[in-house]
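Re-run requested by the PI after the first attempt was lost when the workstation crashed. Everything re-entered from the original request form. Ligand of interest: phenylalanine.
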Amino acid sequence: MNEQAAGSPSRRSSLHGHWSSRLAFVMAVTGSAVGLGNIWKFPYVVGEYGGGAFVLIYLVAVFAVGLPIMTSEILLGRRGRRNPIATMRILGEEEGSTPHWQWLGGIGVLAGFLILSFYSVIAGWVLSYIVNSFTGAYSGADLDQVVSLFETTSSSLTISTIGHTVFMVMTAVVVALGVQHGLERAIRILMPLLMVLLLILVAYSYIEGDFARAVDFMFTPNFDALTSEAVLVALGQAFFTLSIGMGTVMAYGAYLPEGTPITSSALTVVLADTLIAILAGLVIFPIIFANGLDPASGPGLVFEALPLAFGQMPGGIYFGALFFVLVTFAAWTSSIGLIEPAVAWIVETFYRPRAEAAIIVALAAWLLGMGTVFSFSVGSDFVFWQGTIFDNVEYLSTNILLPLGGLLITVFAGWVLCRNSSSEELGVGTGFIYRGWRFMARFVAPAAVVLVFLHATGLVKL
Ligand code: PHE
């Protein structure tokens, strides 16, 4: 590529200003990464796919695939300095490839939209559990009572629809008014608080739960139980929890000032996100084993295990309420990252005002989300392909679109972007870190995604 002719991309500046500091950037990306994926999804997929071996594959996926892809995404975002679709078009042209790379942005828009549709329903349940805390619905409850409380919540069209609607409105309002920064400032205090609460809960589970069995379940790999589907789900979970593969991180990277280290920022986010997921597991599994709950009971797992603990501890109602409020905030900063690509796309393609775009996307995602509401209630028998509507939307977005988006991102950063461009942008010279990243981005990450894909679809047997 001829950098002189293209104008030095590193001097291009974002249209929307820059992050005030590296910490602000790291907090924003962490805000998008930490959410229901850590607290709700991680424990239930670990439970469903048999524990230790799944956790191990997940950790390998996070560090060997997720970290290089997150680094690549930030790098591309900062170099392009536009929304993900425009960024990929500009960089595709600049690097002498094709503007069609913009379709990568299209995958992200679609993935974010699909994820948002069910994310909002689950976040709606979290909202209803704030109410349940105050009404004492789970106070002193035993296993049967918490299970039936979750069933009442998830199978009630009214409760699920109200929660889903309220959460979607919350998301749309923030994005329409463009007041993300207020929320991001709040999350700077709330996220550390969530971490403290999790640590207190781990201590509780250590004392009251079956901690030894939980640690054994989570960290002793039993590879006999590992299926190729489990490996695909672990990979999908790594993408989902890190918010990578759909342009969210790329969009945030567009506002990153020059000279800010990318690799260490990515590493910080990945470590924080992983820590929170593992802590959530260490809270939930000891309670599960001590109370005879089935670890493979699916999406309701957290909504059953946590109230069991809160219901029995002194002051548990207030503690529980506070916990669900914090999880709501964590989900809120994530849903903003989910809706943003679609909103930016509508604003820039159809020249609609931001508020209108936010309302359109939220409404459409709300409608599709009603499919998830039905999946847990009247429509639970309506199954095809992967299962219910929820199962299908979740599988398509998390296990197919995110890894596909991530694959294209890493292929672009590793193979299309020339050495000069990537080393200049990464800003760590051409030494060990640069070579390490490039090797992972060129070979390890793409090969892993392709192999897992082919294996899970039965095309290749390992
Ligand atoms: N990472 C978020 C979570 O774990 C979900 C998310 C995915 C948010 C992709 C933005 C983009 O809850």
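Saved to the shared folder this time. Residues 22-456 form a domain with the Amino acid/polyamine transporter I fold (CATH 1.20.1740.10).
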